[in-house]
User: Fold this.
Amino acid sequence: MGPDLDTLATALYVRIDDLLAQNPEWAPQRPAVGFAPRLSDAELVTLAVISALLGFDNESQFVRYAKAHLRPWFPYVPNRDGYNKRLRRSAETIARVMAGLARECESWHDDVWLVDSTPVECGRSRETQKRSGLAGWAQYGWCASHSRYFWGLRLHLVATPAGLPIAFAVAGAKADEREVCEDMIAQAPLARAGQTLIADKGYRSQALETRLDDAGITLIRPATRSETPRPAARFLKPLRQIIESINWTLKGQLSLERHNARTRSGVAARIGARLLALTAVIWHNQTTRRPGPARSLVAYDH
Assistant:
């Protein structure tokens, strides 16, 4: 690892270890009697973040890399099967750690949020779709950015302009964006009086706007051709470009589109690890007052 990634990984491990000690219910459930794992949960989650930041999309390759180069920091690294099994069982732990770190960031208190969804392809061949453990959850959907259909899921994300994930959900490709957005805000107690939510025209819904208004959240979205101009439209173009940039960071630099997961738990863990990596970078950059954009991965991706 480079010195910057070394510093980030060390700080992240210490903070995750503290969070899990303060919240033992976050850790995966284990039998009361049995062998204690040689790789702690904090070490496992830190390894998952390192893997995402270094761009690994193959766990076998990452385990070989970790055994060859990360021994000074992680004396014990399990084989690929053991690492994969532990990681799949840690999806909920990763999500809780991500939420805990996000609340410690300056960006958490931003009064503007951005919401969008992006495709997460899970397979292309017909045979994959028949045999995949994601069958029944993954669906065919339309990707407007690439003007093509895809088979898979959609990542729905609420984030700040700095790129900090506030809430996320993974749903079928045909799931209604408006319903998922409402569920994300309702299930995670996020509503704040005076909050503004920036969305695209796909979130047009009188019911959604009414519920958001009741929660103290103002929805800003483009007007359709049949509507009169909506207020604050001048903010839409620059802020919509930001959410597209956040999606590109997840897909391009953090290899979201190459997750290679074939089960629900695998999808949850691997998407969660990439979102946690983005959160950890913002957390570290903001808490250490590092100059430059908070979501910049340049110092950590090599």
In short: The radius of gyration is 20 Å. The first strand starts at residue 112 and ends at 123.
